[in-house]
Write a structure and sequence with these properties.
Structural class: alpha+beta
CATH topology of the largest domain: Creatine Kinase, Chain A, domain 2
Distance between the termini: 65 Å
Largest sheet: 10 strands, mixed
Oligomer: single chain
Shape: globular
CATH superfamily of the largest domain: Glutamine synthetase/guanido kinase, catalytic domain
Number of strands: 17
Bound molecules: glutamic acid, magnesium ion
Helix content: 25-40%
Number of helices: 15
Radius of gyration: 22 Å
Amino acid sequence: MNDQSLLAAKTWIQDNRIEYILAQFVDIHGAAKTKMVPARHLDMITHIGAGFSGYAIWGTGIPRNGGDYYARADLTTLSTLPWLPGYARVASDGYVHGRPHALCSRVLLKSQLARLAERGWSLNTGLEPEFTLLKRDGKGGYVAADEFDQLDKASYDYKGMTRKTNRTFLERVTSAMSAVGADVYQIDHEDASGQYEINYVYSDALTSADRYIFFKMAASFAAEELGMLCSFMPKPFANRAGNGLHFHLSLADAAGVNLMEDKNDKNGYGLSELGYQFLAGILHHAPALTALCAPTVNSYKRLVVGNSLSGATWAPAYIAYGNNRTVLARCPGGRIEWRLADAGANPYLVTAGLIAAGLDGIERKLAVGEKHDDDLYDYTPAQLVAKGIPCVPQHLGEAVDALTADKMMVEALGTDFVAEFARLKRMEWIAYSQHVSHWEMQRYADFF
Ligand code: GLU
Ligand code: MG
């Protein structure tokens, strides 16, 4: 629905025989949270919002004795849920005391988009969702749902993609995406067992983030119906590629012209000066952005330098740019592909962080440094130092420290938001650090 008016929404609800609306927002981790609202109460969720206990939701910053959190419907996002006839979904903003809540990641993204709008610009993003279809192994663990899916180099595998359950899943998710106007144009088997990617067309950054949440809602339902689990965990299998969520980025002016494109770019990347400044900003702030793009302890197993069974993880660890898949920012032509983010990231936060960092690059006219079209996985540590190529933080604790130490990012994203994000992520890092794993017992129990 593109019409914001309540009247148009009510007509749409009637036409589509909607009985329930899922008033949906995301917590700080980007997980969808909802209430079922009988459709006749649309007015209430549009004007006030569906009410939630603030403390019961991760990352609202609301204390136990604090107030309510309201998910206020953005009617432009109203869509059917094709897998649940009679249901609609509406993406919502967090409101507290009648005002947009700065700790709601959708609100946070909107505030960064407003900074672009002041300059007459908007951001277009294209997200590349990767995920793994798993099943429980009966022994407390998980394995690829399709037991035949075990090729060393599984990318683009015809059989893995077309076996009945896998194919049915992919078809159902593809068809569901049309409800939010997301035109799927390519689907493939990725590098790991049970791993796939579904590509749909890019759009304005807010719509892309809303669509990714819808995608995860559709995928988890389709998988469950087929007896599987659709996992967006960054690195399910130690010896296989992880699940990335690459962001393709381009700035546009009011007429929709791509401001990042310049066909005369002497590097051959088709990037404009503005594009290079944005790129310089996101590379400069990459350590801080890592906390948002790789927000779990498991994320760093994806980013670690080393090869997978197929010969490459395709996940970048070095802060560099070029037109190749071993760098953080790939420049495929007139846009930037930011490869750092993983499938477990909150898309609103990643986008908000990228805008803040990119704008800093533009405002300070930061220079981007040398390009790298070579395979950075081949470089020795000494070569990397000699070439001045730093590594992203190598664990969650380090990434959170990098975020809190980055004054510009803290100010742009809001001190309250960063404090709450850092508090939760440090708890996660400490909980993980205290855990003694099976690997440690095997290695050290009888070692000394
Ligand atoms: N799976 C890789 C990652 O974790 C990306 C593979 C690709 O380039 O499609 O980023
Ligand atoms: Mg991919």
